[in-house]
From TrEMBL, chain A:
InterPro entries: AAA+_ATPase (IPR003593), ABC_transporter-like_ATP-bd (IPR003439), ABC_transporter-like_CS (IPR017871), ABC_transporter_ATP-bind (IPR050166), P-loop_NTPase (IPR027417). CDD domains: ABC_NrtD_SsuB_transporters. The keyword Ion transport does not apply. It comes from the Bacteria. The keyword Transmembrane helix does not apply. This is ABC transporter ATP-binding protein. One of its GO terms (molecular function) is ATP binding. PANTHER family: ALIPHATIC SULFONATES IMPORT ATP-BINDING PROTEIN SSUB, TAURINE IMPORT ATP-BINDING PROTEIN-RELATED. Keywords: ATP-binding, Nucleotide-binding, Transport. Residues 3-224 form the ABC transporter domain.
Automatic annotation (TrEMBL), chain B:
Its main location: membrane. This is Sulfate ABC transporter permease. It is found in: Cell membrane. Residues 18-28 have a biased composition (Low complexity). The gene is ssuC. Residues 93-277 form the ABC transmembrane type-1 domain.
């Protein structure tokens, strides 16, 4: 078991129910995309998995060592260089001082930023900053990586490159990834399984398994993208009009 | 993970390209020498000083008042020569600077943990926060009589007034810096597994540093003002002669030249500390984060 949700419910104070009795199991090494319309509660679910929010009902099990987390915003510390941002994560993960520099160097190289290790966040592009954030997430050495729309603010070409790198890293590490997105094509491109969340309250309304063969067939992938986009459009409409 | 990294240690040029830092982006502009840049910065305030001193001299010539009641720059310069020559002014300035700096350092040591405690204990902040803000508004000179009664004419009086003047500013500056930290940093510390003390030392304090420096700058200004107020009133006893005491001596002797000179010295010391310590520190701090200090050259 990597992640186990059992009747997980979340609501903020007396507000509406955000997550309504989610029951789902994510196996070790899976790459799962949480797909949903904006505001459906997918980021809240990720925060619950990360321990940033306490569920108001049900239970959540994650690996004993917790989860690494990658925010939508890179959240790099502006006074630290790329190398130092990664070293901070290593330090907090308990890596001995003597090993940190070498490890950080390897991780920075892994995300292809070897030439920019001494740059500070304001000296890097959005894509570079997200690469550093990815290196920092990997530095936490956790078996579960939670990613909250990490590439949403990037241009299409950069996003495309980072998709490839993320897939390669996932295949090599065998870590479990839960990836939140509202981008249907991104979900199909990356994930082995897509969980589609409804809006208000958030429930899993559809599950799709994506194989490499399926991904390699543009016609089938496009048809699924159109189908899921239609589902999301209806959910978005419901969220914007019926919930008022 | 290390196995993975061993397998894949490829590096290459970043296809996205980096955003060049502002300092480098201006490399194509014509380079000016450091001297020329310094001159372009110093010229406007120097010109203002020359104009003001000239106006002062003209007013002194034109004034029907006696020279000792309205001394011109020349008379003040002559007084400066006298008190510098006999060692009075250097000694007083050194005494005041030492008191100001050491008092400020002690204020820093007390105010920093106090601000952190207030930031992390909401009930304490609700209880003490308004009092700290109120103390910042209270003129330091109001503390002098009480300090003299409690500590007598000793250095303790001076330091008590400095601390009461500087601590509230430093506390409020650091608190403001902490309040402005993006909430995401706390979440980041949590997911990175930071313990509370690690979060404070490695994330919170560095993130709050710009606000902290503003608080320190204001704290220094309050230290200096408080010191002058204390030295002006608390004279005699075991107290050494400071710049403020020299000001009081000028008043007692009805020596307006000395009074004007000491006012200028007090002003000059404040400006020198600002220009040599706080301004470069803040500039370097903000530039290191890709920010520009207010009023900086574009």
């Amino acid at each position: 078991m990597s992640v186990e949700l059992s009747e997980t419910t979340l609501r903020y104070g007396d507000g509406p129910v955000v997550l309504d009795g989610l029951t789902e199991s994510i196996q070790p090494g899976e790459f799962v995309a949480l797909l949903g319309a904006s505001g459906c509660g997918k980021s809240s679910l990720l925060n619950v998995l990360a321990g940033l929010l306490e569920p108001t009902g049900g239970s959540v099990e994650v690996p004993d060592d917790g989860a690494a987390f990658m925010f939508q915003d890179p959240t790099l510390l502006p006074w630290l260089t790329a190398q130092d941002n990664v070293e901070l994560a290593l330090r907090l993960a308990g890596v001995p001082r003597a090993e940190r520099s070498g490890r950080a160097r390897e991780l920075i190289d892994l995300v292809q930023l070897g030439h920019a290790r001494t740059k500070k966040p304001h000296e890097m592009s959005g894509g570079m900053r997200q690469r550093v954030a990815l290196a920092r997430a990997l530095a936490q050495r956790r078996r579960l990586l939670l990613m909250d729309e990490p590439f949403a603010a990037l241009d299409a070409i950069t996003r495309d490159m980072l998709h490839e790198e993320l897939r390669a890293i996932w295949q090599r590490t065998g870590m479990t990834i839960v990836f939140v997105t509202h981008n249907v094509r991104e979900a199909i491109r990356l994930a082995g399984r897509i969980l589609v969340l409804s809006s208000h309250p958030g429930r899993v309304i559809d599950t799709r398994t994506i194989t490499d063969d399926f991904r390699a067939d543009p016609a089938r992938a496009a048809a699924l993208a159109a189908e899921l986009t239609d589902v999301l459009r209806k959910e978005q409409f419901k969220h914007e009009h019926l919930d008022r | 993970m290390s196995t993975l990294i061993d397998e894949r240690s490829r590096t290459g040029p970043d296809p996205e390209g980096a955003i060049a830092p502002p300092a480098r982006s201006s490399a194509s502009r014509p380079r000016r020498g450091a001297l020329a840049r310094a001159w372009s910065k110093a010229a406007p305030p120097l010109a203002a000083v020359v104009v003001l001193v000239s106006l002062w001299q003209i007013a002194a010539w034109a004034s029907p008042m006696r020279d000792d009641l309205f001394p011109g720059p020349g008379a003040v310069l002559a007084t400066a020569g006298r008190v510098v020559g006999d060692g009075t002014l250097p000694s007083a300035a050194a005494t005041s600077l030492w008191r100001g700096l050491s008092g400020f350092a002690v204020a820093l040591v007390i105010a920093t943990p106090l601000a952190l405690a207030l930031a992390h204990a909401p009930w304490l902040r609700r209880a003490v926060g308004p009092l700290v803000s109120a103390l910042q508004v209270l003129p330091s000179v109001a503390w002098v009589p009480a300090a003299i009664i409690v500590f007598g004419l000793t250095d303790a009086t001076i330091y008590a007034v400095i601390l009461l003047g500087a601590i509230p500013s430093i506390v409020n500056g650091l608190l403001a810096g902490i309040d402005m930290i993006p909430g995401q940093y706390r979440a980041l510390s949590h997911v990175l597994g930071a313990r509370r003390l690690q979060h404070i030392l490695l994330v919170e304090l560095p993130a709050a540093l710009p606000g902290y420096v503003s608080g320190l700058r204001q704290g220094w200004a309050f230290s200096w003002r408080s010191l002058m107020a204390a030295e002006l009133i608390a004279v005699g006893g075991s107290l050494g002669l400071g710049v403020g005491s020299l000001l009081q001596r000028g008043r007692d002797l009805a020596d307006l030249g000395l009074v004007a000179l000491i006012i200028l010295v007090i002003l000059a010391i404040g400006i020198v500390v600002e220009l040599l310590v706080f301004a470069p520190w803040e500039r370097r701090l903000l530039a290191g984060r890709g920010l520009s200090p207010k009023g900086a050259d574009a």
